[in-house]
Specification:
The complex is a heterodimer of chains A (350) and B (503).
Chain A: H1 3-23, H2 26-45, E1 46-48, E2 54-56, H3 60-85, H4 93-109, H5 115-139, H6 144-163, H7 174-181, E3 183-184, E4 187-188, H8 189-207, H9 209-219, H10 221-226, H11 231-257, H12 268-278, H13 290-307, H14 311-316, H15 319-346
Antiparallel strand pairs in A: 1-2, 3-4
Helix pairs in contact in A: 2-13, 3-8, 3-9, 3-11, 3-12, 3-13, 4-5, 4-6, 4-11, 5-6, 5-11, 7-11, 8-9, 9-11, 12-13, 12-15, 13-15
Chain B: E1 5-16, E2 19-30, E3 34-38, H1 45-52, E4 60-65, E5 68-70, H2 75-80, E6 83-86, H3 98-106, H4 117-130, H5 146-159, E7 164-168, H6 176-191, E8 195-199, H7 203-209, E9 212-217, E10 220-226, H8 232-240, E11 258-266, E12 275-280, E13 284-289, H9 295-302, E14 310-315, E15 318-320, H10 325-330, E16 333-336, H11 340-344, H12 351-356, H13 360-363, H14 371-384, H15 401-413, E17 419-423, H16 431-446, E18 450-454, H17 458-464, E19 467-472, E20 475-481, H18 486-494
Parallel strand pairs in B: 3-8, 3-9, 6-7, 7-8, 13-18, 13-19, 16-17, 17-18
Antiparallel strand pairs in B: 1-2, 1-4, 4-5, 9-10, 11-12, 11-14, 14-15, 19-20
Helix pairs in contact in B: 3-4, 3-5, 4-5, 8-18
The chains are: A mainly alpha (350), B alpha/beta (503).
Chain lengths: 350, 503
């Protein structure tokens, strides 16, 4: 008799602590930040113009705009998630986006290849470029930071040499521009592409042994080797996939802007890394989720686009600068909050 | 030499967690003597040195230097009081000159003090010539050989006015001629009235050099003798001590057919030497030897971490080639490594994921994670090996050393191996878990595995093995039958007697 209430309260407190653990999960915190952010912009960034039409943040067009603009960086962030989980980094994805864009432009314009063929070749070029990174990292055992810092310059340089720094490929057929500017089933077309890649990467990272291997390598490369995990094979897969997805992002980018230039995707790698880290993935490897990366991408995209709709920011004409500043602040605040939440979660319930 | 002792340790004890490294060590060292410290791997020599240099504080016991009690000894105080230690790997700044290295340790430090280079060079030259070392003080340390660097260390100890110099295996990496030079210097130190504590596994060295010998065993002082009172056989007997107790589970099965055969196997690239041996199904083959005898290197080669570049591996009568750990797993070879925390388990990973890591091909068909299969596999092993863990989702880091070791074992049992290589499976594990692991190893053998048991714990090797191979300098120097004594094993490991039935 006497034991029963005690047991009940144990169950209740266990349930409460599970609930608290869930609430204090980093992804949940980030989701809350995202919702607050969105509501603030909805409140302050939405106005009605003289004709009585709603303009600003709270319109469907604006929301689609945010989606369109975040797809390329989102794709790069998805590409980087497995790489960063292994404890590595790929700084070359932005440059590779540029290289693949002009390769695609060259193939369709200079060589006159049919679009699907050119697209496939472009994807192969991206995968091969990822293979170069993987080869240098796995075979020569060079640090990923150094290798991809090298290919970061190399790929961009190749893109510029290819176009002599001045050629811009435009005049793509309408069918191709559909990819970046059209809608399908109510959503921008590239949002569907993004969604497919996101689901694919999520399954890869969270539902296959390969994803498990990324974490193990990130936690302890030696431990992975002693457990018979094929470290080279797994790393190669991660970097090749990153190259492939960067090439896909190049196609989406080219189609959205209707032009391919050597400076495509300049600086995107840093936005993508920011999104991944904001999403809770440890830069040292091992810890992180694809869901977190998606939330990170969304938080940055909403912040960047939402700021531009605020009347006060529009008057100052400083949306870009403010976005950079707030993104940095958001990243640092989120990381600090995550650390504190972890401490709180681990401390005994009370 | 009936002088008053200079450095006296009384009943020193020191524990690390559950491991009692020192359980009452007495040591008396006189000025002007070379005092050898002898003991098996893990007898407590290194811990005792660390206590003497102030790196570890003893749990109890006293240290007296020249009659004065030293309390709260730390490295800086030890150095000031004149206790110096020359390690195998000298800790000098490679980019600086000999004179600068000496000056860093010996000159008073102050940001504004003017450097008098001529003075600095003269001091270095004096110190070096005092120990009879012919080294130019201007040379950069990285251009010096290992023994020359040791000389610089000794010079620095002398310059600091060391009264006690501890030398830890100083001849381990020296050539014959360099050794003799070092002996000359040790003799010179003795003449100057310095007490030298000399640690070495080479008995002939100890017998030529030492005035007295103290033998440690299991963290206790077992004897202290003058040089004239002992010979090699007596020293080995003292080191080994007691007979193997009957705590070890008996062999349950008659060994079957030859399961693992190595024919001149080695990885030359990793500095290995050819080794040939055979292990039968159901047999526990113990691999004994001193630390650094090449046993772990052999295991790494068998497992494909440093793939063999010479020789052959045969398993169950067919030749196999093992170029990677993956290939080893495919051939049914499992290796539970020595360094549990770095290689045996992934500390951040849950117990269940640690257990399924090596056998993933079987547990996760086509590489799809299956939580249900992983959980049932993990729960099976948690029960079978009685791993103490709250649940299979707890991180391995939260488990005790013995339970982590069981998780590492479970990971490899899950691969259903034919050959199980265990590298120091009970190192740093408490007594209870240790005997549990022993029983498990016996059971694996009874199930038909060929077990290769590497252990520096002599009683363990003697108690667990059906046969014992002894390695020295990368080679298998002796193969002893069950019932071999600790004397036999130690003699072979130290290279004292001609090996019997050598490979």
């Amino acid at each position: 008799m006497g034991a029963e209430p005690a047991q009940l309260s144990t169950v209740a407190s266990a349930r409460a602590s599970t609930w608290r653990r869930w609430l204090l999960r980093y992804e949940v915190l980030l989701l809350a930040v995202l919702i607050v952010e969105w509501l603030l912009f909805y409140h302050f960034g939405t106005t009605t113009n003289r004709r009585g039409v709603t303009v600003g943040f709270g319109t469907l067009d604006r929301q689609f705009d945010i989606l369109r603009h975040s797809c390329e960086i989102g794709l790069l962030a998805l590409a980087l998630t497995p790489v960063i989980l292994t404890g590595g980094i790929d700084l070359s994805v932005g440059s590779l986006l540029g290289l693949c864009a002009v390769v695609f432009g060259g193939l369709t314009h200079a060589l006159g290849l049919p679009l699907p063929v050119a697209a496939v070749v472009t994807l192969l070029v991206g995968a091969a470029a990822g293979g170069v990174n993987a080869g240098l990292i796995c075979q020569l055992r060079l640090p990923p930071l150094i290798v991809t810092l090298g290919t970061y310059s190399l790929f961009r340089g190749l893109a510029e040499a290819f176009t002599r720094g001045s050629v811009t490929y435009s005049d793509f057929p309408a069918g191709f521009l559909m990819l970046g500017q059209g809608r399908w089933a109510g959503l921008p077309v590239q949002a569907w592409i993004f969604l497919m890649v996101a689901v694919g990467v999520w399954i890869w990272v969270h539902r296959t042994f390969s994803g498990r291997a990324f974490r193990v390598i990130g936690f302890s490369p030696d431990g992975a080797r002693y457990a018979g995990v094929g470290v080279r094979g797994q790393l190669t897969a991660a970097y090749v996939a990153a190259g492939l997805i960067a090439a896909l992002a190049a196609l989406v980018y080219t189609s959205r802007l209707g032009q391919a230039k050597a400076d495509a995707g300049l600086g995107y790698e840093l936005f993508a890394i920011t999104a991944v880290v904001l999403g809770g993935t440890s830069i040292f490897g091992g810890r992180g989720t694809v869901t977190g990366t998606l939330l990170g991408v969304a938080a940055i995209a909403v912040l960047k686009n939402g700021l531009a709709t605020l009347p006060v920011v529009m008057r100052m004409n400083a949306a870009e600068e403010l976005a950079g500043l707030l993104t940095g602040a958001l990243l640092l605040a989120a990381l600090a909050a995550g650390k504190l939440a972890e401490r709180w979660r681990r401390s005994p319930a009370g | 030499m009936a002088e008053r002792p200079l450095l006296v340790f009384r009943q020193i004890t020191k524990s690390f967690g559950a491991v009692r490294a020192l359980r009452g060590v007495d040591l008396e060292v006189r000025a002007g003597e070379v005092h050898a410290l002898l003991g098996e791997n893990g007898a407590g020599k290194s811990t005792l040195i660390k206590v003497a240099t102030g790196a570890h504080a003893p749990d109890s016991g006293t240290i007296h230097l020249a009659g004065e009690r030293l309390e709260r000894l730390d490295p800086a105080l030890a150095r000031r009081r004149g206790i110096a230690c020359i390690y195998q790997q000298p800790a000098l700044f490679p980019e600086l000159s000999v004179a600068e290295n000496l000056a860093l340790r010996l000159e008073p430090t102050s940001a504004w003090r003017r450097v008098v280079w001529s003075e600095r060079r003269r001091m270095a030259a004096t110190l070096l010539s005092r120990i009879g070392a012919d080294i130019d003080p201007e040379r950069e340390v990285r251009t010096l050989s290992m023994p020359e660097q040791q000389l610089v260390e000794i010079a620095s100890a002398m310059g600091a006015g060391a009264r006690v110099v501890i030398m830890d295996e100083p001849t381990a990496s020296l050539t014959r001629r360099e050794q003799e030079r070092l002996f000359g210097i040790v003799t010179a130190l003795r003449r100057e009235g310095v007490a030298v504590i000399y640690i070495s596994h080479r008995l002939e060295e100890i017998l030529t050099l030492a005035d007295r010998v103290t033998v440690l065993r299991d963290g206790q002082t077992v004897a202290c003798h003058a040089r004239a009172e002992v010979d090699e056989a007596a020293l080995i007997r003292l080191m080994v001590g007691r007979e193997v107790d009957q705590l070890y589970p008996a062999s349950e099965s008659a060994p079957g057919a030859v399961r693992l055969e190595l024919k001149g196997l080695c990885c030359r690239a990793a500095g290995g030497r050819p080794v040939s041996l055979r292990v039968r199904a159901g047999e526990v083959y113990g691999l004994a030897g001193l630390v650094g005898a090449g046993r772990t290197e052999l295991a790494r080669t068998i497992f494909g971490l440093t793939p063999a570049d010479a020789g052959e591996v045969w398993i169950d009568g067919s030749r196999v080639s093992i170029g990677s750990p993956q290939a080893a797993i495919a051939q049914g070879v499992a290796y539970v490594p020595e360094d549990r925390r770095r290689h045996g388990v992934v500390l951040e990973l849950p117990v269940g994921q640690n257990i399924s890591l090596a056998a993933w091909r079987r547990i996760f068909p086509l590489g799809w994670l299956r939580g249900d299969r992983e959980r049932s596999e993990a729960e099976h092993f948690v029960r079978a090996l009685s791993i103490k863990t709250p649940d299979t989702d707890a991180a391995a880091a939260n488990l005790s050393g013995g339970n982590q070791q069981k998780v590492a074992l479970a990971r490899w049992l899950a691969t259903r191996p034919r050959v199980l290589v265990l590298d120091e499976p009970t190192q740093g594990v408490d007594v209870g878990a240790k005997s549990e692991i022993h029983r498990l190893v016996r059971r694996f053998a009874a199930e038909g595995m060929a077990v290769l048991l590497i252990s520096s714990d002599l009683p363990e090797v003697l108690g667990m093995s059906d046969r014992i191979g002894v390695m020295r300098g990368g080679e298998l120097v002796a193969e002893l039958p069950q019932g071999a004594t600790a004397m036999d094993v130690m003699s072979a490991a130290l290279g004292q007697t001609p090996s019997e039935g050598a490979a």
